[in-house]
Write a structure and sequence with these properties.
It is a single chain. It contains 8 helices and 18 strands. It is an alpha/beta fold and 390 residues long. 26% of the residues lie in helices and 24% in strands. Helix 2 crosses helix 3 and helix 5 runs parallel beside helix 6. The strands form 4 sheets. Strands 1, 2, 3, 4, 5, 9 and 11 form a 7-stranded antiparallel beta sheet that branches. Strands 8-7-10-12-13-14 form a 6-stranded parallel beta sheet, covered by helices on one side. A 3-stranded antiparallel beta sheet has the order 6-16-15. The two termini are 19 Å apart. A hairpin with a 2-residue loop joins strand 1 and strand 2.
């Protein structure tokens, strides 16, 4: 399947215009790839806040011009107009080597900006596979799709997932250009991949991305910190970081989320076609943290080879089907009357792995053991030098 080139170019223009018109977003090009973060803001753990204030004062920002808020417990966000974020982070990391310090990175869903192959979904016919209702009972695997909000006008039945009212999305055309925003239906699609592949999952959708697939690191970390009843977390989003260093606030949130518990994070590897830079949060899978083995970084294959648009590198755990995936989208005339679509990207390879973990949990005895079993099975069938799930 392919997207007409004029439609892709239009989608790309809208996407780029959206990013360039966000007054709070800054973008630096490092090693040929954009690193995005929120202008004028730094994040620091609570114990380093006083030193952070003094550092910003030394950089020329009056105490009265520096504001502080608490995006989540134990974390402080400092803001000053005209702040040189990179300089402030460098100084503070030198002064606070054991503290959490970093810019407020901006992350994007993994067909947005990384859009493979090349842009928007296209209409598709519903496949013969059934959509499994949300599992119930002690053996069900609690899956959270942290993504866009869910759209209700969709062939994804309410019985296949749960979402509170604040996690329902209604925006279809946020910039009023007459076209669907780039990430409309993203969570619907991911949830549809899971429930087409297993009847062992209890899927919940938690909104962190807007209809253009954008969130900040602080927002993502706060949402992860708020999770309690979850076994597997699907993160089909990500980005690059300043200096290729692990995003500090996200790292702290994942450490708390994964430490000591029977939980797994499945993260999309991104669709930039690169192999020499870490893409976060997927790259935490090989980051050396004590909980790194609980992160599965998923690249995409097309059944024959690793997709050329899929990121890859030593931090990738395995590859899974991610090209021309057919799943539940939104009903929108005239292009999507059925509500089903074909879409490609590591965004949709990740939930294939989520489903595989859910399928194996009962026999394996735990979510972590099920994840290790999926990895072991994938290692028996290599593709492009990577373990492959089919």
């Amino acid at each position: 399947m392919s997207v007409p080139i004029d439609r892709y170019r239009r989608w790309e223009q809208v996407r780029n215009a959206r990013l360039s018109n966000l007054p709070w977003l800054r973008s630096d090009v490092q090693s040929g790839r954009p690193v995005r973060y929120v202008a004028d803001e730094i994040l620091v753990s609570e114990g380093g806040a006083a030193i952070a204030h003094r550092t910003l004062n030394a950089l020329g920002h009056r105490p009265s011009a520096v504001t502080e808020r608490e995006p989540r417990r134990g974390l402080r966000l400092l803001k000053a107009d005209g702040l040189d974020v990179a300089a402030a982070v460098r100084q503070l990391r030198g002064q606070l080597p054991d503290a959490v310090v970093g810019p407020n990175h901006v992350f994007l869903s993994t067909p947005y900006e990384h859009g493979g192959p090349y842009g928007p979904p296209i209409s598709a016919t519903a496949p013969p596979s059934k959509l499994a209702p949300s599992a119930d009972g002690p053996s069900s695997v609690r899956v959270v799709v942290m993504d866009t909000g869910v759209y209700l006008d969709s062939p994804l039945p309410p019985g296949c997932y749960s979402a509170t009212a604040d996690n329902v999305e209604t925006v279809l055309d946020g910039n009023a250009d007459g076209e669907l925003d780039s990430d409309v239906g993203h969570a619907n699609f991911i949830a549809g991949v899971v429930v087409q592949s297993t009847d062992a999952a209890q899927v919940r959708i938690v909104k962190v991305l807007d209809s253009f697939g954008v969130c900040t690191e602080a927002e993502l970390a706060a949402k992860i910190a708020s999770l309690t009843d979850v076994d597997v977390l699907n993160l089909s989003l990500g980005g690059f970081s300043v200096g290729d260093q692990p995003p500090a606030i996200l790292s702290a949130a994942l450490a708390t989320f994964l430490a000591g518990g029977d939980r797994v994070v499945v993260a999309a590897a991104g669709n930039d076609g690169i192999h020499d830079r870490p893409f976060w949060p997927a790259a935490f899978a090989a980051g050396g943290a004590p909980w790194a083995s609980k992160v599965i970084a998923v690249a995409a294959h097309d059944g024959n080879a690793v997709c050329d648009w899929s990121n890859r590198g030593a931090w990738v755990t395995l590859v899974a089907p991610g090209a021309d995936v057919v799943s539940t989208f939104v009903r929108h005339t005239p292009a999507f009357e059925s509500g089903w679509a074909a879409w490609s990207g590591t965004s949709f390879a990740a939930p294939k792995v989520v489903a595989a973990v859910a399928e194996r949990r009962a026999a394996a005895g735990s979510v972590v053991a099920a994840a290790e079993q999926v990895k072991a099975e994938a290692s028996q069938q290599q593709m492009g030098g990577f373990p492959a799930l089919h």
